[in-house]
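W.,

You were right to be curious about this one. When I first looked at the sequence I had no strong expectations either way, so I just let the prediction run and decided to look at it fresh. Below is the sequence, 712 residues in total, followed by the output.
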Amino acid sequence: MAETLEFNDIYQEVKGSMNDGRLRLSRQGIIFKNSKTGKVDNVQAGELTEGIWRRVALGHGLKLLTKNGHVYKYDGFRESEFEKLSDFFKTHYRLELMEKDLCVKGWNWGTVKFGGQLLSFDIGEQPVFEIPLSNVSQCTTGKNEVTLEFHQNDDAEVSLMEVRFYVPPTQEDGIDPVEAFAQNVLSKADVIQATGDAICIFRELQCLTPRGRYDIRIYPTFLHLHGKTFDYKIPYTTVLRLFLLPHKDQRQMFFVISLDPPIKQGQTRYHFLILLFSKDEDISLTLNMNEEEVEKRFEGRLTKNMSGSLYEMVSRVMKALVNRKITVPGNFQGHSGAQCITCSYKASSGLLYPLERGFIYVHKPPVHIRFDEIAFVNFARGTTTTRSFDFEIETKQGTQYTFSSIEREEYGKLFDFVNAKKLNIKNRGLKEKKEGMNPSYDEYADSDEDQHDAYLERMKEEGKIREENANDSSEDSGEETDESFNPGEEEEDVAEEFDSNASASSSSNEGDSAREEKRRKQLKRAKVAKDRKSRKKTVEAKKGKDPNAPKRPMSAYMLWLNASREKIKSDHPGISITDLSKKAGEIWKGMPKEKKEEWDHKAEDARREYEKAMKEYEGGRGEPSKRDKSKKKKKVKAKMDKKSTPSRGSSSSKSSSRQLSESFKSKEFVSSDESSSGENKSKKKRRRSEDSEEEDLASTPSSEGSASGSDE
């Protein structure tokens, strides 16, 4: 017979939710570990009183009852596993695993039995349903009626909110069956009532999550956070872990309380309660209990009068009431000597603490990752600078956490820590992965030397790739990698052959061939640059849009919307633009077909008008621009003709010099398109007008003109 039995994908029912996990049965007892939270339930073999096997929604289930009244339910077994479990229970636990199915008659009349923390509604000898009383949040009574309200389950899509029981009156005097029913429920229910005095009160503590300053009242079964805006009541049964973490500045301390289920405010869930203390704050604390009660309840862990640092007092009281260990950082020390690493997670900067059994990040948002849920870690180069790197963690469920902007000096310490904890490193070489890198920690433990440098090796590989790329490019380009290249200087490079230095370098054939190769590549690059520039000009020319072109016609919907916009605004005062568009779409969608046809006809008419206007536009497009262009050409032509026209004898030297200065223009201003008949006509008219102007100038009386006339 096997000493242990293990089952994967088993579901435990806790507070109305089914938690996935692993179940192990051993000679000492039964251990269940929650895959999501890592919480471990341990049931000792000597505490078991009854074991029941029954058919449930998820296959078959196992129900266990203990001496102190606790009930444990595990679902997800296969029918074939009954014999194996039955034999194991007989051999190791001395228990008979009974088969007992639920009643499915559908009756709503039966008897209620209270057994331990379980309310069972039975018909005959078969149970119909069972209610764990720890799920009850409130119990109210009426005339012959008891109403049970339940804690809301955030993980389930549908939650049971309340159940009502009708309790018939009895003939017995002095016993009210309704009150008796309610008292049985309340004695085991998880009803939070702030009755009596608090054991102690801590005033105005700084809380980072949820943010604010709160008075913390410590009651025997729950913690009460009282703030200016919100109040929270946290049962000690929901506290999963406690952490006490020193701040990097060595002057402050974080006290972190992990909660499952979380406290909630509206739609926000707080899985962690984070308190920040100064190490310099001291307090004297007196518990609101006598010394005998303190000794009996806390067994020396607390005393009636205590004094010390505030964070020590809070953590000490919480540890005694919750009865859980406080997790502190292990032997990790960063580059600066601190037990944490400064980094960023998502948009906020915070501190990452490597612990003995996991990582915790504070404070916004707080993250706790256990080693047993980590698939692998990865050291990645920082995205913005080479002075930092990223630390990536991926869980077995596929969730990825990236802690970025970690200083490069922290790399060696963090890598050594991860390596010592035997975590899989993604960018480690395959050879190292095969050399037994399996985790050495116990999978059912309650959570909380290879010198290979993976990051350095990765940097070396990237450096080799860059060097190879550089060598390839240098081989392709020859000597030109050491010189700058300007596409407009090809002519100067060609002329180098005929200068004095060219003869000295041309003595060797190798130098000539290298220079020829260089010149060819330069010419080729210049051609490519020229083609690219011409393509760019073509694209820019295409982008231009003529403002005189006819506008496209509107659709039927847009025509209707323009006509109906003001009416919609008047019907819905203050409506926004987006809401108006949505409302218009709804109205148009629900409009009858006959009304839509009217707007369709209008849209068709607009389309015809557009096509007509477009034809006219295309027929006469570009005429204004051509006329403007021809005017410019006429001016240029006229000035060039002045230069070629012979000066007359009657014209003065002053007029001829003026004519030469006016007629001079460089080549690029003269257009080559001068053969059109229209331009020739305009050129002749221009010549006649200029000739007449010259004759007028010649006839103007002047001393030089009269002198030349007398000589003739």
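Here's what jumped out at me. The two ends are 148 Å apart (CA to CA). And, maybe more interesting for your project: DSSP finds 17 helices and 31 strands in the chain.

Coffee later to discuss?

I.
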